[in-house]
Amino acid sequence: MDFIGAYSPDNLSFLMEGLGMTLRLALLAIALSFIFGCLIGAIRYARVPVLSQVLGAIVGTIRNLPLLLLIFFARFGLPELGLPITPFWSAILALTVFEAAMISELVRSGLQSVEKGLVEAARASGLSYMQTLWHIVLPIGLRRMVPPIVSQFISLLKDTSLVVIVSLAELMHNAKIIMADFDFVFPILILVASIYFLVNYTLSQVARRLETPQH
To answer: Which segments constitute the ABC transmembrane type-1 domain (predicted)?
Structure first.
Protein backbone atom coordinates (compact mmCIF):
# COMPACT_ATOMS: atom_id res chain seq x y z
CA MET A 1 0.00 0.00 0.00
CA ASP A 2 1.58 3.22 -1.21
CA PHE A 3 -0.06 6.03 0.79
CA ILE A 4 2.48 8.62 -0.33
CA GLY A 5 1.96 7.83 -4.01
CA ALA A 6 -1.81 7.58 -3.61
CA TYR A 7 -1.99 11.01 -1.98
CA SER A 8 0.18 12.77 -4.53
CA PRO A 9 -0.86 16.33 -5.49
CA ASP A 10 -2.07 15.16 -8.90
CA ASN A 11 -4.25 12.42 -7.42
CA LEU A 12 -5.68 14.71 -4.75
CA SER A 13 -6.44 17.34 -7.36
CA PHE A 14 -8.14 14.71 -9.53
CA LEU A 15 -10.27 13.59 -6.59
CA MET A 16 -11.22 17.18 -5.78
CA GLU A 17 -12.38 17.62 -9.37
CA GLY A 18 -14.56 14.55 -8.87
CA LEU A 19 -15.86 15.94 -5.59
CA GLY A 20 -16.74 19.18 -7.37
CA MET A 21 -18.79 17.22 -9.91
CA THR A 22 -20.46 15.25 -7.09
CA LEU A 23 -21.44 18.46 -5.30
CA ARG A 24 -22.75 20.03 -8.53
CA LEU A 25 -24.85 16.95 -9.18
CA ALA A 26 -26.16 16.89 -5.63
CA LEU A 27 -26.93 20.62 -5.38
CA LEU A 28 -28.78 20.77 -8.70
CA ALA A 29 -30.71 17.56 -8.00
CA ILE A 30 -31.54 18.82 -4.49
CA ALA A 31 -32.89 22.11 -5.82
CA LEU A 32 -35.00 20.49 -8.54
CA SER A 33 -36.28 17.63 -6.40
CA PHE A 34 -37.23 20.03 -3.61
CA ILE A 35 -39.26 22.19 -5.98
CA PHE A 36 -41.06 19.28 -7.63
CA GLY A 37 -41.37 17.35 -4.37
CA CYS A 38 -43.03 20.29 -2.60
CA LEU A 39 -45.38 20.85 -5.52
CA ILE A 40 -46.40 17.19 -5.73
CA GLY A 41 -46.73 16.89 -1.96
CA ALA A 42 -48.94 20.00 -1.77
CA ILE A 43 -51.17 18.76 -4.60
CA ARG A 44 -51.60 15.40 -2.93
CA TYR A 45 -52.29 17.04 0.44
CA ALA A 46 -54.93 19.25 -1.17
CA ARG A 47 -56.43 16.15 -2.85
CA VAL A 48 -56.86 17.82 -6.20
CA PRO A 49 -59.30 15.60 -8.11
CA VAL A 50 -57.73 13.14 -10.60
CA LEU A 51 -54.31 14.86 -10.53
CA SER A 52 -53.73 13.82 -6.93
CA GLN A 53 -54.54 10.19 -7.72
CA VAL A 54 -52.35 10.15 -10.83
CA LEU A 55 -49.40 11.68 -8.98
CA GLY A 56 -49.94 9.25 -6.11
CA ALA A 57 -49.67 6.29 -8.49
CA ILE A 58 -46.52 7.72 -10.10
CA VAL A 59 -44.89 8.44 -6.74
CA GLY A 60 -45.76 4.97 -5.46
CA THR A 61 -44.23 3.36 -8.54
CA ILE A 62 -41.01 5.40 -8.42
CA ARG A 63 -40.50 4.80 -4.69
CA ASN A 64 -40.56 1.06 -5.33
CA LEU A 65 -37.96 1.14 -8.10
CA PRO A 66 -34.19 1.05 -7.46
CA LEU A 67 -32.40 4.31 -8.25
CA LEU A 68 -29.86 2.37 -10.29
CA LEU A 69 -32.62 1.28 -12.67
CA LEU A 70 -33.74 4.89 -13.14
CA ILE A 71 -30.17 5.94 -13.92
CA PHE A 72 -29.88 3.17 -16.52
CA PHE A 73 -33.22 4.14 -18.03
CA ALA A 74 -32.35 7.84 -18.24
CA ARG A 75 -28.92 7.20 -19.77
CA PHE A 76 -29.61 4.26 -22.08
CA GLY A 77 -33.39 3.92 -22.33
CA LEU A 78 -34.30 7.47 -23.33
CA PRO A 79 -31.88 7.51 -26.33
CA GLU A 80 -33.60 4.35 -27.57
CA LEU A 81 -36.85 6.33 -27.53
CA GLY A 82 -35.28 9.08 -29.63
CA LEU A 83 -34.45 11.33 -26.67
CA PRO A 84 -30.64 11.65 -26.56
CA ILE A 85 -29.30 12.88 -23.23
CA THR A 86 -25.81 13.51 -21.87
CA PRO A 87 -24.42 11.54 -18.91
CA PHE A 88 -24.66 14.63 -16.68
CA TRP A 89 -28.30 15.36 -17.43
CA SER A 90 -29.28 11.71 -17.33
CA ALA A 91 -27.88 11.57 -13.81
CA ILE A 92 -29.69 14.79 -12.85
CA LEU A 93 -32.96 13.48 -14.30
CA ALA A 94 -32.77 10.14 -12.49
CA LEU A 95 -31.76 11.67 -9.16
CA THR A 96 -34.41 14.39 -9.40
CA VAL A 97 -37.24 12.00 -10.26
CA PHE A 98 -36.30 9.57 -7.50
CA GLU A 99 -35.73 12.19 -4.79
CA ALA A 100 -38.78 14.26 -5.74
CA ALA A 101 -40.93 11.18 -5.12
CA MET A 102 -39.34 10.71 -1.70
CA ILE A 103 -39.58 14.38 -0.75
CA SER A 104 -43.19 14.64 -1.88
CA GLU A 105 -44.11 12.03 0.74
CA LEU A 106 -42.20 13.95 3.42
CA VAL A 107 -43.98 17.15 2.42
CA ARG A 108 -47.40 15.50 2.41
CA SER A 109 -46.75 13.93 5.81
CA GLY A 110 -45.48 17.23 7.19
CA LEU A 111 -48.59 19.07 6.02
CA GLN A 112 -50.87 16.35 7.37
CA SER A 113 -49.15 16.61 10.77
CA VAL A 114 -50.59 20.10 11.30
CA GLU A 115 -53.36 19.82 13.88
CA LYS A 116 -56.86 19.90 12.42
CA GLY A 117 -57.89 22.28 15.19
CA LEU A 118 -55.56 24.95 13.83
CA VAL A 119 -56.97 24.51 10.33
CA GLU A 120 -60.55 24.63 11.58
CA ALA A 121 -59.82 27.73 13.66
CA ALA A 122 -58.28 29.47 10.64
CA ARG A 123 -61.27 28.61 8.46
CA ALA A 124 -63.67 29.73 11.19
CA SER A 125 -61.87 33.07 11.40
CA GLY A 126 -62.72 33.71 7.75
CA LEU A 127 -59.58 32.52 5.94
CA SER A 128 -60.11 30.72 2.65
CA TYR A 129 -58.72 27.24 2.05
CA MET A 130 -55.71 28.61 0.12
CA GLN A 131 -55.08 31.31 2.74
CA THR A 132 -55.17 28.68 5.47
CA LEU A 133 -52.77 26.49 3.49
CA TRP A 134 -50.37 29.38 2.82
CA HIS A 135 -50.43 31.15 6.20
CA ILE A 136 -51.04 28.30 8.64
CA VAL A 137 -50.38 24.83 7.26
CA LEU A 138 -47.26 25.50 5.17
CA PRO A 139 -45.25 27.49 7.78
CA ILE A 140 -45.89 24.90 10.51
CA GLY A 141 -45.51 21.89 8.24
CA LEU A 142 -42.28 23.15 6.67
CA ARG A 143 -40.62 23.60 10.06
CA ARG A 144 -41.49 20.04 10.98
CA MET A 145 -40.27 18.52 7.73
CA VAL A 146 -36.89 20.28 7.57
CA PRO A 147 -34.87 17.59 9.44
CA PRO A 148 -36.19 14.60 7.44
CA ILE A 149 -35.77 16.52 4.19
CA VAL A 150 -32.14 17.35 5.05
CA SER A 151 -31.63 13.66 5.88
CA GLN A 152 -33.05 12.80 2.46
CA PHE A 153 -30.60 15.24 0.86
CA ILE A 154 -27.77 13.44 2.68
CA SER A 155 -28.97 10.20 1.11
CA LEU A 156 -29.07 11.91 -2.27
CA LEU A 157 -25.46 13.03 -1.97
CA LYS A 158 -24.40 9.46 -1.19
CA ASP A 159 -26.53 8.17 -4.05
CA THR A 160 -24.56 10.28 -6.54
CA SER A 161 -21.88 7.58 -6.32
CA LEU A 162 -24.20 5.34 -8.36
CA VAL A 163 -23.74 7.50 -11.46
CA VAL A 164 -20.27 5.98 -11.81
CA ILE A 165 -22.04 3.47 -14.08
CA VAL A 166 -22.61 6.16 -16.74
CA SER A 167 -18.93 7.20 -16.68
CA LEU A 168 -19.62 10.64 -15.26
CA ALA A 169 -16.45 12.14 -13.76
CA GLU A 170 -17.69 12.37 -10.18
CA LEU A 171 -15.79 11.38 -7.02
CA MET A 172 -16.16 7.59 -7.27
CA HIS A 173 -15.43 7.62 -11.00
CA ASN A 174 -12.14 9.47 -10.49
CA ALA A 175 -11.27 7.31 -7.49
CA LYS A 176 -11.83 4.22 -9.63
CA ILE A 177 -9.35 5.52 -12.21
CA ILE A 178 -6.70 6.14 -9.55
CA MET A 179 -7.33 2.69 -8.05
CA ALA A 180 -6.36 1.12 -11.36
CA ASP A 181 -2.93 1.08 -9.71
CA PHE A 182 -3.52 -1.70 -7.17
CA ASP A 183 -1.08 -0.20 -4.67
CA PHE A 184 -3.51 2.71 -4.30
CA VAL A 185 -6.77 0.81 -3.68
CA PHE A 186 -6.84 0.85 0.13
CA PRO A 187 -5.46 4.40 0.60
CA ILE A 188 -7.91 5.85 -1.95
CA LEU A 189 -10.88 3.99 -0.49
CA ILE A 190 -10.00 5.35 2.96
CA LEU A 191 -9.69 8.88 1.59
CA VAL A 192 -12.94 8.74 -0.40
CA ALA A 193 -14.80 7.31 2.60
CA SER A 194 -13.42 10.16 4.72
CA ILE A 195 -14.56 12.76 2.18
CA TYR A 196 -18.09 11.36 2.05
CA PHE A 197 -18.19 11.16 5.84
CA LEU A 198 -17.06 14.76 6.34
CA VAL A 199 -19.55 16.16 3.83
CA ASN A 200 -22.47 14.09 5.13
CA TYR A 201 -21.58 14.64 8.77
CA THR A 202 -21.62 18.38 8.16
CA LEU A 203 -25.08 18.12 6.59
CA SER A 204 -26.32 15.96 9.48
CA GLN A 205 -25.20 18.62 11.94
CA VAL A 206 -27.12 21.20 9.93
CA ALA A 207 -30.21 18.99 10.17
CA ARG A 208 -29.75 18.64 13.93
CA ARG A 209 -29.48 22.40 14.39
CA LEU A 210 -32.55 23.01 12.28
CA GLU A 211 -34.61 20.48 14.21
CA THR A 212 -36.92 22.04 16.78
CA PRO A 213 -38.61 20.20 19.63
CA GLN A 214 -42.05 18.94 18.75
CA HIS A 215 -44.79 19.11 21.39
So the answer is: 19-207
